[in-house]
Amino acid sequence: MHTKQRDGAFRLPDLETLPPDGGAEFNRLVFTSSPYLLQHARNPVDWHPWGEEAFAKARAEDKPVFLSIGYSTCHWCHVMEHESFENEDVAAFLNEHYVSIKVDREERPDVDHIYMTVCQAMTGSGGWPLSVFLTPEKKPFFAGMYFPPDDRFGRPGFIRVLQALHNAWTGDRQKVLGIGEELQEKLAESMQSRPGELPDDLLAQAVKSFKSNYDEVFGGFGSAPKFPMGHTLSFLLRRATAEGDAELLRMVEHTLMRMYRGGMWDHLGGGFCRYSVDRKWLVPHFEKMLYDNALLLMAYTDAFQTTGTEAYRRIAMEIVDYIRRDMTDATGLFFSAENADSEGVEGKFYVFTRKEFADIVGEHADMLAEYFGVEEAGNFEHGQNILHIAVDPQEWAQRQGLDLTDALERVADAKQKLFAARAQRIHPSLDDKSLASWNGLMIAALARAGSAFGDESVTRMAQRAADAILERMLTKDGTLLHRIRGGDAGIPGFLEDYAFLTWGLIDLYQATFDVRYLTHAVSLTEEMLSRFSAQDHGALFFTADDAEELIVRTVESHDGALPSGNSAAAYNLVRLARMTGRSEWEERAQDIMRAFAAQLERYAAGSTVMLTALDFAKEDGQEIVLAGRDTAAVSSLAAEVRRRWLPRSVLLFHPDGDAEEIRRLVPFIEHNAAVDGKPAAWVCRNFACEMPVHGAEELGARLSEI
Prior knowledge:
By secondary structure, the chain is an alpha+beta fold. The protein is 48% helix and 11% strand.
């Protein structure tokens, strides 16, 4: 078997032989666990990780702080590293006049969130690498993103920026400090939520906004760049089915298939890239993120359950296969990302020249090149081609004089050959840390896919990851840790860690009926509400009460590439309220949503997971309770429920015999038991249940009435 050769693999030296500053060859980042920070461990810049040591040094030496934030699969982060941070002259200036701190935004999303908000306020835009200049008290006074080494692209050169800010620090200190004070005040003000009542037509407003922004030709919303936003598509599927909106369903289906046909989908290895730089979904930013693939796995699973279209199940399973093959460690946890670059070139691993393509596929190269859109001049940079489905398969097969099945067999054979050839290349680097938050989303996606497709192997992937987190990342006092890498677990969890993992555990309980997962979902929610709640409004803070004190304690409701912690928390609370009968948790979810009423009314489409929570709360839902001797006894009943699209239902199991834990968690379930020893199913609304049924066919008929 071919062993992957990864680009940029970093071999740690014997750390015990190094001085505290890393010595002549390394800087202090060599002692960190982050793959991103380790990428910079050989820079001549005297980097520090985020921490009190760096700020104490800045105070002692009366220097400003240069804060650089990025992540391991960020293309322009690598460019700025090569151009500036590997440059001896730049490093010398930084080392003399600044204290330099490097932060992995994925390890410290709290730090990133604060200073990205500053950058957006100062410049009108944001992105990575994020470059922020701070006082030793962590107050920002200048921010930007990528700076070239010299003036170009209409951007000031990095050296010129460093010199100008050094001059301001030494020559006009009061102005610099004043800027920092003013920015901190504005930042604190911007983080205040303004509670209010939610408009009755909020869900309709969001749908209207998406319809007005829809791309009828290529699917998706807006123009370039286009992001997949799986959680948005899942929300729109909910509204399409709730309203019987055929137009909305068509929009979602068109988008799902255009994304799959484009170059953002890896047609050889499965999985989606981060986003498309063009309107057509052809040219991706080639990095692959765990969270994107989790959210898209949910969306394609939802589409399969909504429509029964087999293509969605197949695409979903190809995402699963990719995660299993390339993104899972020996313990079952999921890695964070694969890089866009290999050997210093973005996309090099994925693309082919026309000649390479023909040499690999051999016979039928011309017809296959037409299918995959492979051109002599290339459809990408430097004569390279991004594989995509460039034709209508049925019309293409007819032009070849072939039955569609025979034609697609040739495509499948070509894919195998191309995949095998590509496997011999240098693979993009892997960010091999595991985050509780992102793993939680993938656990949810796999649990739902395993249930929907009746595939226990997929469900077991979710179980292995959940068990690994609960064993290795949850402390005895109930603190969830954010990151683990190579056995090193650390960084107290953020709101998104608690919320996303709980999301996964709720879905995993419903996929397995293992009460441990529901128990942990409830206890994590209790911890979350205890540690993250604001006293004066219903929102939840980004960081816990006992977290490191930063210049402001932030709240977030926007569902961007990742859902916000508040949105996921609201969604979990509504579902757990229905599962456990704890009505106060549904009220708590309403408090969270009301805390962001102004933002939701202004831009409802920006918080689709929070709207999913609202959809769950407003529309009629069901509690479906199965009872029997054991899970095997109710397996046919469970399969009947799980295969259906029931987005506002919760599923519970009451076993005969030892059921103390589930009765403690779900007191009302005591009244739902097997009848005369026969498995039974109750369909309940607001905890009032109809008469039980005993067979899958009967249950199916009852569910069809919903």
